[in-house]
Amino acid sequence: MTVVKSTLPEADRKIVGEALQHTLTDLIDLSLVAKQVHWNVIGARFRSVHLQLDDVVTTARTYADTVAERAAAIGVTPDGRAGTVSKSSRIDEVPDGWIKDEKVVAVMIAALDAVIRRVRQGIGTTEKPDPVSQDILIGLAAELEKHHWMFQAENV
Amino acid sequence: MTVVKSTLPEADRKIVGEALQHTLTDLIDLSLVAKQVHWNVIGARFRSVHLQLDDVVTTARTYADTVAERAAAIGVTPDGRAGTVSKSSRIDEVPDGWIKDEKVVAVMIAALDAVIRRVRQGIGTTEKPDPVSQDILIGLAAELEKHHWMFQAENV
Amino acid sequence: MTVVKSTLPEADRKIVGEALQHTLTDLIDLSLVAKQVHWNVIGARFRSVHLQLDDVVTTARTYADTVAERAAAIGVTPDGRAGTVSKSSRIDEVPDGWIKDEKVVAVMIAALDAVIRRVRQGIGTTEKPDPVSQDILIGLAAELEKHHWMFQAENV
Amino acid sequence: MTVVKSTLPEADRKIVGEALQHTLTDLIDLSLVAKQVHWNVIGARFRSVHLQLDDVVTTARTYADTVAERAAAIGVTPDGRAGTVSKSSRIDEVPDGWIKDEKVVAVMIAALDAVIRRVRQGIGTTEKPDPVSQDILIGLAAELEKHHWMFQAENV
Amino acid sequence: MTVVKSTLPEADRKIVGEALQHTLTDLIDLSLVAKQVHWNVIGARFRSVHLQLDDVVTTARTYADTVAERAAAIGVTPDGRAGTVSKSSRIDEVPDGWIKDEKVVAVMIAALDAVIRRVRQGIGTTEKPDPVSQDILIGLAAELEKHHWMFQAENV
Amino acid sequence: MTVVKSTLPEADRKIVGEALQHTLTDLIDLSLVAKQVHWNVIGARFRSVHLQLDDVVTTARTYADTVAERAAAIGVTPDGRAGTVSKSSRIDEVPDGWIKDEKVVAVMIAALDAVIRRVRQGIGTTEKPDPVSQDILIGLAAELEKHHWMFQAENV
Amino acid sequence: MTVVKSTLPEADRKIVGEALQHTLTDLIDLSLVAKQVHWNVIGARFRSVHLQLDDVVTTARTYADTVAERAAAIGVTPDGRAGTVSKSSRIDEVPDGWIKDEKVVAVMIAALDAVIRRVRQGIGTTEKPDPVSQDILIGLAAELEKHHWMFQAENV
Amino acid sequence: MTVVKSTLPEADRKIVGEALQHTLTDLIDLSLVAKQVHWNVIGARFRSVHLQLDDVVTTARTYADTVAERAAAIGVTPDGRAGTVSKSSRIDEVPDGWIKDEKVVAVMIAALDAVIRRVRQGIGTTEKPDPVSQDILIGLAAELEKHHWMFQAENV
Amino acid sequence: MTVVKSTLPEADRKIVGEALQHTLTDLIDLSLVAKQVHWNVIGARFRSVHLQLDDVVTTARTYADTVAERAAAIGVTPDGRAGTVSKSSRIDEVPDGWIKDEKVVAVMIAALDAVIRRVRQGIGTTEKPDPVSQDILIGLAAELEKHHWMFQAENV
Amino acid sequence: MTVVKSTLPEADRKIVGEALQHTLTDLIDLSLVAKQVHWNVIGARFRSVHLQLDDVVTTARTYADTVAERAAAIGVTPDGRAGTVSKSSRIDEVPDGWIKDEKVVAVMIAALDAVIRRVRQGIGTTEKPDPVSQDILIGLAAELEKHHWMFQAENV
Amino acid sequence: MTVVKSTLPEADRKIVGEALQHTLTDLIDLSLVAKQVHWNVIGARFRSVHLQLDDVVTTARTYADTVAERAAAIGVTPDGRAGTVSKSSRIDEVPDGWIKDEKVVAVMIAALDAVIRRVRQGIGTTEKPDPVSQDILIGLAAELEKHHWMFQAENV
Amino acid sequence: MTVVKSTLPEADRKIVGEALQHTLTDLIDLSLVAKQVHWNVIGARFRSVHLQLDDVVTTARTYADTVAERAAAIGVTPDGRAGTVSKSSRIDEVPDGWIKDEKVVAVMIAALDAVIRRVRQGIGTTEKPDPVSQDILIGLAAELEKHHWMFQAENV
């Protein structure tokens, strides 16, 4: 059933759709991981890290919505279900239970690293077929790399 | 490692912790399911249902946070990771791809039904050991049953 | 026609539905009575009482909506029509025309008294069948008894 | 007891007072009717109609207050008690229980029709004796006829 | 020098200009009188009357601006200078020094009475030549008569 | 097809509908003209005039909506399409390209003059058949004549 | 007369100026078309479509301003006059009079389609000469294609 | 009648009371003068000067209130009646009718000059008897001298 | 003198009044203790702890007001005077002077612990006599235990 | 331990520190006293006085914070503990239980009187050693004397 | 010391870092220059230019922050110290003292011209190595060229 | 050219002008230094210090504007150009590159120390010639010494 007629030719639609779908699952997992450590963090820096993690959650949720609706707009159905996220995310699973603040910072640096790498690939593959989707991924990379810097800066 | 000294005796803490953990995974899945159909819904009622689903997402996200932080407050570490959600949620997986509006309404009635049932159980089991946690679940049930009514009312 | 499937067993649904319906008619009448004397109050305390009455109207209207939608949520159709209110309210009819400020205060103490009495009964009858509805009535009682104190305090 | 000295001669005061009193009872009933169907509406258009009805409630409550205070300002005591509303309103009583969305729309068209007719008469009778009250009724007619159009437009 | 070309014929412009100029001086004086007693009021009702007077000041200042700019818009230069106000206002001068609350209420009833009388005349004289200016005076009369009622209601 | 049953008799509906339709096309054109010179104005007064023009755009857009919805409310379908505006507007076409600030002021005085003239006629023709529509045109005339004064005042 | 010195070489300025001018006329017409059907839509989905159309109007008006001011910024005078819009827009004229909701949705899909096609061309032609203007067109395409998806999704 | 017991000895109370009373009449007149020219200004700078004058009105009204209530707080009854202002203000009367923008600027420089001179004297005389009143006059001088600079700067 | 007629029987009123009075003195002292260390905290975590303490102050002040007004509402006069607080609070006196951040965290854990213990007792004793007061104490316990967790989490 | 290096010489630091510490204890007690009578006031003026007292609480709390942080800023550790307040405040203890409105007003006049007297002394002693602290006390005196006037004015 | 691991290869990091550093010093100087003339401007257009300059300051400060944090995010330490700005900025030093409005406009056109030229170069050099940084420079160019147009338009 | 006529005699004007000019350059440099370390700070306290520094920037920018406009108001042209700041600031240059959090705190203590010292001198020299300028410096000293305390408190 063709519900939404894409403004992109079929081949381009497929390339772009894939990049958006990868980004979507990574971002949903990023939001779940950041919440998980937001709740379980302990240590002297508790309050500071607890608040900082919610800034990451805001980025992840906002862009997950933007990216999923961009997929729909080019005629690709986004898939953000728990099972899909659990299978496809590139972020390593975080350990269960209380987790020390410096460990949380390390976990977030690694998680952001994984997401940024796929977003950077998406920026490359979408450039020609769809500069509109590329522009969204560029804006996302700017936010993710800012969080990335901040966690690194406090990990010295 | 005892990080947070519970104000509840050990047996009570366990009962309440379990009720909160069940609610947490159900609520995270509810937020993912509602977003999934928010993006993929089609049909004449598209805009109305699309907006209504974001009200469910707001309830689910707000209470997931409240419930997880309540668990931490009684010394229980909450687990909201993708894998845990995927394995433990009581909500049936929604189908992939575009989905007609009346089907979306049916999906949401079933999903809310499943979550409400466990929350109602939690209200029962937490009453004696921790009226504070019970009060949170009661507030949550009120919101979920309101959404439940609304989807049923438009499904006639 | 079963439109909204109740999460309560039939017997409980009936008890709770009755408590909510009684509260609804009392609250609508309370809002009408408070407005009536808001418009017709005279005397040196005019401005103070005039403003205070709108606080009561806000409580009454907000909770009338909450209570009616709670009824719908458990599958009971609320009835807030003028004829029903006029017949079922427990508040005595206020006299027509200009009304002195100290008389207004006495009228409001009596009106709040009548409504509180039925809400207190509702708290008792709903406790077992539906703690969710009970919680709403408890919150309402807190607001009504606060207004009740204030009018009494200025009636000395 | 002459509490408020009217700026209008006695004959004019009576004509205008009657027009305002009629409008007041109609508007209070309109707000009760709109809330009644706001709570009991069912059908595919549930959410849209549910929200639309609260816009009518806002118009009815705001103007009821304006009209009643205008009556007081010209020395006429307004009467908005449940019994008076129930006896004097020109709106037909709505049926009890769940009510289908297209039926709700028809109910609202008829209710608005009845209120508008009396307001239009009031515009005529108040023109000479009190252009200030007339101006309020004109503003009210504009809002009511806008709601009237909208319900008609969705009833095609 | 013809700066602003009036949309009204010369005779109409003069009639309307006069009505607006009278209203302007009365309103400026009303704002000064209300502030004077706002500062000097004493007695048990101090706080209530003190606040109520600022509502009158708001009406007077807002409409003074509207009326003066309406005059300019029809090519008539408004005159709101202290000397002009002092000479032309219809409000009796209020006594100097501390002033008891019930006396303040009486002063305001008389002041509002004087202003309303001239505004009512203006409504009559502007009807034919300029319904736009008339509409402004009608809106002003509604606010002034509302204040008038309130002060009378608390003077019983 | 009778979609919206008018509250006006047929003859009145036609007179009023025409006045509203004329106003609509004039207001849409006024908004386009004001934007055109907002973008192309040059000269020492650039910033001041640039900002002032957006105040006119706000008036024109807000009242275009009000007037069009008023037409619908009395059962007349408004026509605000580009072709209709281009053919029916009474405002002279403004020249293309950069335009000096004093020329912009002159253009706006003329444009407002043209619109005001038709609105003033509409106030006359709608008085008897529909005081509700007349009241909207009166409010619009007040805003337009205020802009008219301001541009004239700075053109001396 | 060279008023604004372009930061672009003449050839580039011409290419970019043309793309912006085309976009401007299309966006103004889109805003007029969306308002036209916003006022004339009828049918069961009236309220939902009526509100959705104002979202399109907001996009169209906001970007028309951005695009026209971008043209000025590179030294090109934008032309948004009614005659120009009427002659140059790529959107088909919509029919006069009441229009059924599903027809409105179809009209909007076609209108958005036409605008998107030219914007997509503009993204191509401006890439080399002016990435700043291109970035604006990319942001606009993202919004237009989102509206496009939504109307298609509710047209199934 | 001693209503408000001053925290100052009688001699100090008199000196400070006089300084505050002088400031009060000057500030009220400043607000009337600024409004007078706000309404009657003409010339190319109309809009800019028109808006700037309302900033002066805000300063004058805010500090008039502060200064009058400070007088009351030290047991001195403030006098801000039209007759008193007209007799005691140090500001020269402004001419009637339209007034060119550069003339308005000159009028305001002179008016501010007169007010500042008396405020500066008040700062000197209140220093010893009441640093609290002095602090208010210092804050006022800062605002007045800022307006003074701005009008001078645009008068070059 | 019976000022406020309690809705509770005398025995219940006494039990509930005592629980509320205990909570009141503890909460006032909690607010004073939290402010004391908010001002005197030193150490690397200064800013984080300084801000966190104001969140505790907000909880303590808000609930002190709610609890005291609840006492009044059931006819019990609350006592929140400095002497009473100093004598009856269960919180240990904090040391004078600068205090290191980790010591502050320990002080707050102990203070919250003491308050929570009495609130938990109050939840038990008020359950039967007054579910309305109990509900307030439950809400308070939820907030206090959340602060308690946070200070413990950062003390690892 | 020298934590904060004072910008004042030791002798000055001591004088200023004492003035600030006295003010701090008085202000905390003022906030507790005002809350005590805010909860226990009865009589016809209940609502007016109840609200007015919260304005005093706001002043007292805001300046307590400012004054305590000023002490810290000059290297003096502030002491605002319940025991210290109870021992050092200059305000007489208020009676327990319900208290009539006119008695409340008298209590507040006396309490403000006591605090103002010490603040006035502080203004004198801090002038030379620290004009920065003096400026804070001057601002505080202005607010306290304003409350003082208002309570006196309503006590006539 | 490698504090922040760049997501860019070393050669790209160096090119992009340089472009960002140049932009940073130019933007800080632009903010200082705009403030300098904001304070020293004189002439008939004083107020208009004074306000317009603060819009430039807002752009300059906002983007200076964005650009510096982007540098940090790619592992390059930004340098915005006064000495660096003074030595590296491409903007010519503005003259000291009062400066006429038309001269201010010319100064700003030249300053913006200088900054835009380097930003345009940066857009070119960053395109390949880092589209994320390029996107920030493109957004900045859009704002700077808008200010550039406005100052030119008022310089005719 | 005498543009702004000073309200101060020439000798006073010179003394005060110098104090303001010194403060201006120090404040601009303070804002640049605080931003420099805001971007380059690293270490476990990164986030807390990063946010705290922006509070200093806000103080510095707000008072720089106030101080510069105060200079203009007394007829002295302020000089805030990069070269002037670089040459005249009393703050030591901060090192380039990443900088550890405890080092940042030390840098800020020293920078604030230097600025406070000159501001304190300015408070002394301006007291006689211009209490208005002195009052601004006093307010500034209060804010700077508060930041000074906070950085010292976290440096223990």
From TrEMBL, chains A, B, C, D, E, F, G, H, I, J, K, L:
Domain Ferritin/DPS: 18-153
Signal peptide: none
SUPFAM superfamilies, A to Z: Ferritin-like
Record keywords: DNA-binding
Pfam families in the cross-refs: Ferritin
A GO term for molecular function: DNA binding
Family: Belongs to the Dps family.
Protein name (database record): Starvation-inducible DNA-binding protein
Organism: Actinacidiphila glaucinigra
Lineage: Bacteria, Bacillati, Actinomycetota, Actinomycetes, Kitasatosporales
